[in-house]
């Protein structure tokens, strides 16, 4: 009796360990396929559901100079469920906008003001979620140097009217209007 209980417990533990080993082997295979897709910068149907592979694909588009495809891929990642990849995609998208704006040199950057404004917005999005992101802070300061934001000063065209006095029916009481 005692021997059958020990054998049964051993069989249960061996079955549990075998199922864990099979589960981890499947995960390892998936990770290897994802890493292969990342290094080759092509994403098959299987890896299209893996956010890291989509991020690598967007990065490959940006490095290849395909800005429109990279912008679409980064925006899809920003709207996705993964916050860490969303912040990284927003930062990279800001960098992509800045590179496109500075393609003709810093002296011609004023012609690309919309791209610089988009880059500043992306850097601000990153800093709003992660205030300690120093790279985004530095890039935002560079973008602000290229396209400073001028504070609009409210100019008063007319001087405010002098305080008016009105007469009152009460004796000895004076009421001033604001």
State the main characteristics.
178 residues; mainly alpha; two-stranded antiparallel sheet
Any overview of this molecule?
With 178 residues, this protein is mainly alpha-helical. It is 64% helix and 2% strand. A two-stranded antiparallel sheet has the order 1-2. Strand 1 and strand 2 form a beta hairpin. Helix 2 packs parallel to helix 4 and helix 3 packs antiparallel against helix 4. The longest helix has 39 residues. The radius of gyration is 31 Å and the shape is elongated. About 3% of the residues have low confidence.
Quick structural overview:
By secondary structure, this protein is mostly helical. The chain is built from 6 helices and 2 strands; from the N terminus they run ααααααββ.
Helix content: 55-70%
Return the CATH class of the domain at 82-149: Mainly Alpha
- Structural classification: mainly alpha
CATH topology of the domain at 82-149: Serine Threonine Protein Phosphatase 5, Tetratricopeptide repeat
């Amino acid at each position: 009796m005692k021997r059958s209980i020990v054998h049964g417990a051993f069989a249960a533990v061996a079955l549990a360990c075998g199922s864990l080993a099979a589960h981890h082997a499947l995960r390892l295979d998936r990770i290897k396929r994802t890493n292969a897709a990342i290094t080759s910068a092509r994403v098959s149907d299987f890896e299209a559901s893996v956010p890291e592979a989509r991020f690598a694909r967007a990065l490959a588009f940006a490095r290849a100079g395909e800005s429109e495809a990279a912008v679409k891929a980064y925006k899809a990642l920003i709207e996705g469920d993964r916050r860490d990849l969303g912040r990284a995609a927003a930062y990279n998208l800001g960098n992509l906008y800045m590179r496109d704006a500075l393609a003709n040199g810093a002296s011609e950057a004023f012609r690309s003001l919309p791209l610089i404004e988009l880059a500043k917005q992306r850097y601000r999005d990153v800093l709003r979620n992660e205030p300690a992101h120093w790279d985004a802070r530095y890039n935002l300061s560079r973008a602000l140097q290229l396209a400073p934001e001028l504070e609009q000063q409210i100019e008063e065209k007319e001087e405010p009217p002098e305080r008016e006095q009105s007469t009152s029916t009460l004796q000895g009481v004076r009421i001033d209007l604001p």
